[in-house]
């Protein structure tokens, strides 16, 4: 058991102070009415910056609701707040304006406009530095891809070891593979939608047509499997050895309980059954369908499907770790290939963030599904639909994990792929016991607002 804290830092952290993402609730203080002197026009050039404390000042500059010395056309009083409350925080400069001898910048913090402050209290920084600082601040051991503008090259994040014993660092270039977990559901759902498009299935097709032995199968539809509202619950346990797809489907049916109740309730078994249906409808294995319909089409060359055969990978498998007050890289644990083989359609894929990023883009750019089909796939349910959560306006996301390990996966994608975040972790918990799902959301905030 390793107790030595040793982290590979790949990003820039603030020299002092804490970097905490979130919306501030600090209220400005009313101090005076607006002056009416300068008429200088604003410069709308935008950039990212970090709030700093000038050496000649004991605290930061004031943040004003209106530019000091510039006519306030709204007639509202000018209010202020001390910028020291945001020392070392990252902001987005929306525009600048000069008043007399001073230039002020209008700053936005995670989506909230704070006001105007002296540009001398700001240090321009890159998007990559903000994303990397977030990864290291929360001790996110893993790797990922973060894109804040689909027309720009995405930023690759990596931190810590994939295998500490062999000094192998986390990477997203194909040299290290990670278990995808429930993020695979989106792939399975996309294939189901392709079959619906070709009229080989319908959303109202019932489970009884393929697995009549499941209780209440006549009342369970493809749509309910896609939205986790089938009434099926249960957990598939790891078998003693690798199993075939057919054996996995049999084991899933043995493990499930069918309640005939239909609120949202997550269970991997829904998507294992969908994988089985794909095989029955096409006359080909789920693996063959996944390879031809998704992996080959998108050029996902570093993605491997685990079934009854020991997977052959050119890179290495990441190792799972735990962290505690005693340090990082504790309780090392290898991936269970038997468990992965028991989850076709719902967790039997090994891949990289870079490869999965291709899939996330492909879902919306027409390479996997036409736009109307993608829209349909994400509208079957109001909470979860087609392998992703759809309960936040303008964004789709999902989180995956292997219970009892440090492996966690997550992604966010805005409608149109303007902002995309894909993160794979191989250690948990994060700093201050931050939940992985919360961490993924924080990086999505960075991608959205910086």
How would you summarize this macromolecular structure in one to three sentences?
InterPro entries: AmpC-like, Beta-lactam-related, Beta-lactam/transpept-like, GW_dom, GW_dom_sf. The chain is an alpha+beta fold and 450 residues long.
What features would you describe in this structure?
The protein is of the alpha+beta class and 450 residues long. It has 2 domains: 29-125, SH3 type barrels (Roll); 136-449, Beta-lactamase. The chain is 23% helix and 26% strand. The protein has 10 helices and 25 strands. The protein has helices at residues 127-137, 185-197, 222-226, 245-255, 269-282, 286-298, 337-341, 353-364, 371-377, 436-449, and strands at 29-32, 47-51, 62-64, 78-82, 90-99, 102-109, 112-118, 122-125, 142-147, 155-159, 161-163, 168-169, 176-179, 232-233, 257-258, 304-305, 316-317, 320-324, 327-333, 349-351, 389-392, 395-401, 408-414, 420-425, 427-428. The strands form 6 sheets. The chain has an 8-stranded antiparallel β-sheet. Strands 10-9-24-23-22-21 form a 6-stranded antiparallel β-sheet, with helices on both faces. Strands 16-20-13-17 form a 4-stranded mixed β-sheet, covered by helices on one side. Strand 11 and strand 12 (168-169) form a beta hairpin. Helix 1 (127-137) runs antiparallel to helix 10, helix 2 (185-197) runs parallel beside helix 5 and helix 4 crosses helix 5. The chain is elongated and about 80 Å long.
């Amino acid at each position: 058991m390793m107790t030595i804290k040793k982290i590979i830092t790949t990003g820039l952290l603030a020299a002092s102070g804490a970097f905490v993402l979130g919306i501030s609730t600090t209220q400005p203080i009313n101090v005076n009415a607006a002056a009416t002197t300068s008429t200088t026009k604003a410069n709308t050039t935008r950039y990212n910056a970090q709030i700093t404390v000038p050496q000649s000042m004991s605290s930061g500059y004031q943040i004003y609701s209106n530019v000091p010395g510039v006519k306030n056309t709204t007639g509202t009083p000018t209010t202020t707040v001390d910028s020291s409350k945001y020392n070392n925080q990252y902001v987005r400069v929306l525009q600048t304006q000069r008043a007399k001898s001073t230039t002020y910048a209008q700053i936005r913090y995670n989506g909230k406009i704070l006001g105007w402050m002296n540009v001398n209290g700001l240090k321009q920084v890159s998007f990559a530095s903000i994303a990397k600082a977030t990864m290291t601040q929360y001790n996110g051991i893993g790797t990922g891809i973060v894109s804040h503008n689909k027309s720009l090259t995405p930023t690759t994040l990596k931190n810590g070891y994939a295998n500490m014993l062999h000094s192998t660092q986390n990477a997203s270039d194909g040299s290290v593979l990670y278990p995808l977990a429930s993020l695979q559901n989106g792939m399975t759902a996309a294939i189901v939608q392709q079959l619906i498009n070709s009229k080989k299935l319908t959303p109202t097709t019932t489970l009884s047509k393929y697995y009549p032995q499941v209780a209440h199968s006549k009342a369970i539809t493809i749509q309910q499997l896609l939205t986790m509202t089938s009434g099926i619950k249960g957990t598939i346990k790891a078998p003693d050895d690798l199993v075939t797809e057919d054996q996995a489907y049999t084991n899933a049916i043995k493990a499930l309980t069918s309640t005939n109740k239909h609120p949202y309730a997550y269970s991997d078994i829904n998507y294992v059954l969908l994988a089985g249906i794909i095989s029955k409808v096409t006359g080909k294995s789920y693996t063959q369908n996944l390879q031809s319909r998704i992996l080959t089409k998108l050029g996902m060359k570093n993605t491997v499907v685990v079934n009854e055969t020991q997977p052959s990978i050119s890179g290495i498998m990441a190792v799972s770790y735990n962290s505690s007050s005693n340090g990082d890289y504790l309780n090392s644990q290898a991936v269970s290939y038997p468990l992965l083989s028991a989850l076709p359609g719902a967790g039997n894929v090994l891949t990289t963030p870079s490869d999965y990023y291709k899939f996330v883009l492909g879902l919306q750019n027409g390479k996997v599904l036409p736009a109307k089909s993608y829209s349909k796939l994400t509208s079957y349910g109001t909470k979860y639909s087609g392998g992703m959560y759809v309960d936040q306006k303008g964004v789709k996301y999902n989180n995956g994990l292997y219970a009892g390990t440090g492996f966690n996966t997550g992604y966010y994608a805005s409608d149109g792929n303007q902002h995309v975040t894909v993160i794979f972790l191989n250690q948990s918990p994060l700093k201050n016991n931050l939940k992985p799902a919360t961490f993924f959301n924080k990086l999505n905030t960075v991608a959205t607002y910086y």
